[in-house]
Structures are given as C-alpha cells and as structure tokens.
Write a structure and sequence with these properties.
The chain has about 200 residues and is of the alpha/beta class. The chain has 3 helices and 24 strands.
Length: about 200
C-alpha cells in the first residue's frame, strides 16, 4: 500500500517492487532493484527515507524517519525480518539481521553487520566492516560493542546520549511518560489525513 503523508508521496523506481501487504508512506524514495516484502513498513513521519539500489527489506521489518531524524540506506543493504531501523544513516552493503534494532542518529559504516537481535543504539557510530554479534549492543562514538549482560557499562555510555531529548524532544528531567505520549500522540495524529496513492 502506498500512502501520502503530510502532502508527500512515495517515489518508487519502476525497477523496484513493493509487496501488496507492505506499506510505504510519506516522503520515501525507493531505488532500482529494491524489494520491499510482505508486511514491511517504510514510514516517513515528517522526515524522509531514501533506499539506494538493490536494497532488500524483508518481511515485517520497519524502517522509519521522524521529523527530527531522516533515514537513509545506501546500495545493496539487507534489512532482515522484524528488524527495526529508525532515523539513521546506513552506508552501502550493510547487513541488518532478523530482529535487530538501529536507533535514531546512528551511523553504520560500509559493510558493517548487525547480527540477530543486535542493537546499534542512539547516536552510535559503527565503523566500516564492524560486526555487532548476536544479541550484543553497540553504543557510543566510536562504538563500544558490549554483551547484553553488561547493562551497567551500556548505561554508562548511553545515559549521556539523552534518549528522551534526542528521540522525543523532552529533556530527561521532564521525561515522564505523560509528556512523551502526549507529544508523540500529537505528532502521529497527522496519519489521520494519509491518503492512498
């Protein structure tokens, strides 16, 4: 399904395909040879999304851009089933495996890999050729890559990156869920005006 959002419609190269049960919404440019498979969601909510040549977005993956963070994928990237990629820059030939999560402001270097259920956190820079192992977490600039049982070490690197301010525009001291959900609800209300194209 192709939807316009905030007055912008997806642009799909004639050599790309979008499955009938996938959704592509808003300011999205899909390059030649791209394949967006069943159940995938490619949604630009105020920002823009660009998929380069021959990108594959597998079943039920989510790629999002927000008003604060565009999302770009270089050429020959593969986004695995149920992966979540939001507001980040992904260079050429990157592999993001099943269930991986890439957060706002992250940058993934050429030929890097994020394996099953790996995480590249907020504003993290993953160098070219780096690998985030299965279930591990990359955080910081430059990225520290830590196993999931090292929560205190992950948090020590993540806390100063200020997730609530970066993602929701709410300073940490004001990051009550009431304020976050109120602001996010107001932003997402714009989807009520989406139209099929």
């Amino acid at each position: 399904m192709l939807l316009s959002h905030l007055g912008k419609s997806p642009r799909i190269d004639p050599a790309a395909t979008v499955a009938s049960t996938a959704t592509v919404c808003g300011d999205v440019a899909v390059g030649p040879g791209c394949r967006i498979l069943h159940g995938a969601m490619v949604v630009a909510e105020g920002g823009r999304i660009v998929l380069g040549r021959d990108c594959i977005v597998m079943e039920n993956a989510v790629i999002r851009a927000t008003g604060r963070h565009d999302c770009t994928l270089g050429d020959h990237c593969l986004i695995g089933p149920c992966a979540h990629v939001v507001g980040c820059a992904v260079e050429d030939e990157v592999f993001i495996a099943t269930g991986a999560a890439i957060f706002h402001g992250a940058r993934l270097g050429r030929r890097s890999q994020v394996r099953i259920h790996g995480v590249v956190h907020l504003r993290t820079v993953l160098p070219p050729g780096a690998t985030v192992p299965i279930g591990w977490v990359a955080v910081g600039d430059p990225a520290a890559i830590l196993p999931p049982d090292k929560h205190e070490g992950i948090w020590a690197l993540l806390e100063p990156l200020n997730f609530p301010a970066t993602v929701y525009g709410v300073p940490r001291g004001e990051a009550a869920m009431v304020e976050i959900t109120r602001r996010l609800s107001a932003e997402l209300a714009a989807h009520g005006d989406d139209e099929s194209v």
